[in-house]
Known about the structure:
Layout: H1 3-11, E1 28-32, E2 35-36, E3 44-51, E4 54-65, H2 68-71, E5 83-90, E6 105-107, H3 114-125, H4 142-170, H5 175-187, H6 189-201, H7 205-211, H8 215-225, H9 237-252, H10 274-287, H11 291-297, H12 301-307, E7 319-321, E8 324-325, H13 336-357, H14 363-371, H15 379-386, H16 394-407, H17 417-424
Parallel strand pairs: 4-5, 5-6
Antiparallel strand pairs: 1-3, 2-3, 3-4, 7-8
Helix pairs in contact: 3-17, 4-13, 4-16, 5-6, 5-13, 8-9, 8-10
Amino acid sequence: MKEDFLHYLWKFQKFHREELYTSSREKVEVIATGQHNGSSGPDFFNAKLRIGGQLWAGNVEIHLKSSDWYVHHHEKDMAYDNVVLHVVWEDDMPVFRKDNSAIPALELKAVVPEGVWRNYTSLLKGSYDFINCEKEIGKVDPFLRDNYLERLFFERLEQKSLAVLQDLESSRNDWEAVFFKNLTKNFGLKVNGESFRSIADSISYNTVRKVRSDLLQLEALLFGQAGLLENTEVPDSYTGELHSEYIYLKKKYQLSGAGVIRPLFHKLRPANFPTLRLSQLANLYVNQGKLFAAAMEAGHIREFYDLFDSTASAYWDRHYVFGKVSGKKRSKNLSGNFIDLLMINTVIPLKFCYARHTGRDANAAILEIMESLKPEKNRVTDRFATTGIKARNAGESQALLQLYNTYCSKNRCLECVIGHHLLKN
């Protein structure tokens, strides 16, 4: 048993309330359970209780055993001075405040219905291949499930917004710089995401602003900082021009490659080679003068596809790496699937944060955009599909990722709406 189960019992009052007595046989009436505290300090703040006929207002601490009070050294922590009730599964010893007064203890093991305990053990200790409730989740009421998935989607956006706000603070509220850093990272996808982010971090966005009207300069800047122009042998004129331009830019803007992670080619499909992705990114910024503003204003999926319709420079029609000609000439455009990923991982989180920053509520518009995007396919969404939960759009696939990563994989069933529903029933 974990303390989380006792938190669940107290928060939702899953016990025989008419039979509550302290270990010293004082009647306990719960008027308000208090506010659940997920950080340091007592587990529930500002509870209201009547103990032995006297009304108390204060905090509630929860442990498996009363002796855990001393194991966790609460007797030395002033934050626990206002605890008015010690809720435990087993009361194995008395606990005292600093003034030597005893803290009333409520033992739960005798007042919890057998069905609650049985449901808990069945859910968290059963046999499963993927998640605890894989045999039951597909039977949950679709209305409850769909509403919870919507909540999970915005919970995921809230988490992503923390990183965006950190970028905003470090860039002194320069939204265009934040957008550039995040967009560059996501052009690198999973394999080169951190590498591309390190490239963006190594360049002041003011430098990008100064060169973004010149494609050769912007490509030279990105390729050079990525370490892709270090070869002293120049195989062709295009590579030579980039090399010369980068030497000039490096000196002019005092560029440093310190901290840059070299991008990888290994295990990538040629269409995702860093050479092509950096050229596509450069072309996008050269051709879209006000990319950030346009992305924030766009509301229909077709507008986004038009906005991110970018291709690598003509050199890459016959190349995937510098100096090596490929067999067939072909334009290297951004695919619709790739633009979808940019939407999900860059545009939508920035749109969410920017709307809040400007005092607007864009949740409905964001949800509409996500519902128009195809769901992501990955290991997690594929496994959920085997349980009967198949994502119908990108909003739902993001929600399923949030559900799995934040709750299912960490056995936080008691904090999950679906887990709570299954336990209740």
